[in-house]
Amino acid sequence: MTVMAWVLVLTAVGTLPAVVLGLLPPAPRRQRDVVPQAVVVLGAGRTRWGGHWRLPPAGLRRLAVGAERAAQAALPMLLCGGRKRRLGPTESALMGTLLERRWPQQQAWLEQRSRNTWENARYGAQELRLRGIDSILLVTSRAHQARAALSFRAQGLRVEVISADDSLGPAWMPSVGALALLPDIYYEWMALVFYRLRYL
Question: Domain named DUF218: which ranges (predicted)?
Fold first, then answer.
């Protein structure tokens, strides 16, 4: 096969959900008898559009899934996410504003100091312990689950993790969404190695 043919084959394989999902970091091992006392939603960054700061699609999905699960179980929420630059509102402030509009009855606290997942866990755990909470339902994206669970469990919390991802479609049908997930998978594997070396 020519180089071009191999490129086409690899690109086609990289669009299959069954293949791409198999490359994800392993899902966190389930902890037994976790009874969540709060739902924790992790921010997914901020985007600026039309002069205003907004949540990206991943952040909107995480917030919606977290709010629905919190409402079902009558649990409070902790929204985690600061900002890496000083401009504009924090991720958690953006989530909080949207939560007030769409789910006005839902109680939520904001953690606004964190700049990465480890700080989400560190500062989030402080906020939770002030309220006597040590067991949580953690909402994030599937690719991010392993690193997020590792970080929060390292703070001594009991954690059940759920993902807030759109379906990639049938396992063996090419999907643009599957192809778009590849950079996130690469990043998460690199981040897991970094976290192991720096924090654990």
Answer: 37-190
